[in-house]
Write the structure tokens for this entry.
Amino acid sequence: MILGIESTAHTFGIGIVNNGKVLCNIREMYTTEKGGIIPMESAEHHKKIAEDLFEEALREASISKKEITAIAFSQSPGLAPCLIEGMKFAKKKAKELNVPIIGVNHCVAHLEIGRLTGATDPVLLYASGANTQIIAYESGKYRVFGETLDIGIGNFIDNFARFIGIGFPGGPKIQKLAEKSKNYIELPYSIKGMDVAFSGILTKLKQIYESRKYKVEDLAFSLQETVFAMLVEASERALAHTGKKELLLGGGVACNTRLQGMCKIMCKERECKFFVPSKDLLVDNGSMIAYLGEIMLKKGIFTKVKNMEKIDINPRERTDDVEVKWK
Ligand code: ATP
Ligand code: FE2
């Protein structure tokens, strides 16, 4: 019975997993009216709600805290103040319950949770707020085959959505607008090898918006068609390069049904299988942390309570820094 804690950015989540089965998955998100996330405020939010969410998680999973056998937490990468609150809470609980603690890489957890969908050795298109990466396992590590050269795709979409005054998070709202248009406006297509870039497209979109010549629906549609095509192209190249036969979507932007549809078409044409976890497991969540934590625990990768002080956060750890000792 593993309890997982997620706290890398605006979401504080707790999940409980037992033998690969998700028993509960709850979260609360820190939001701002205007502007981006303020790390200290988000951390304060996590600290305030942690204990209540913990109790709620136990109730939802119908277990008592004595049944918990280990605590997993997102140790990397993320906003330092947020990671610290997650770690403090994890240590507090590990001590209280006298159970081992497991530090988990958040990006790798997004990938591993895909196993629940049936994927065995996929290329992962990880498209979230802060991250955009194409990742696959090769010789002991998850390698990053392609990634954004500037901002994450979710932040790109959210930034444009804020600019046109439709609020945060922008992804679902842009999707709704896009569904109302079929009028494609030419935008820069920015892909270099397997890497992508969004800031030039963002500037262009803002200029077009300010020219007032086009409807926002057309802009939303053109935005999605352009940047999703870039992601699908880079993912297809990664599939060709690695010879893998599965594509897995991860991260909050993967909730987008147009992105899912485009991936499906590409996979069908390449005779690959396509996997996408349920929405609850796509966005930042504690269950994926618990899920990977359980896999690591079973392979003996954990820290005993008495050595807990040695554990620290690692805000900048990259996916390919992680030694995958559990495969
Ligand atoms: P990270 O994993 O990089 O720390 P995060 O915590 O910001 O990032 P997630 O919770 O995985 O990310 O995803 C949030 C992002 O997903 C937001 O940018 C939001 O706009 C986007 N998003 C959610 N639903 C949709 C959708 N239907 N279409 C496009 N984007 C979406
Ligand atoms: Fe994430």
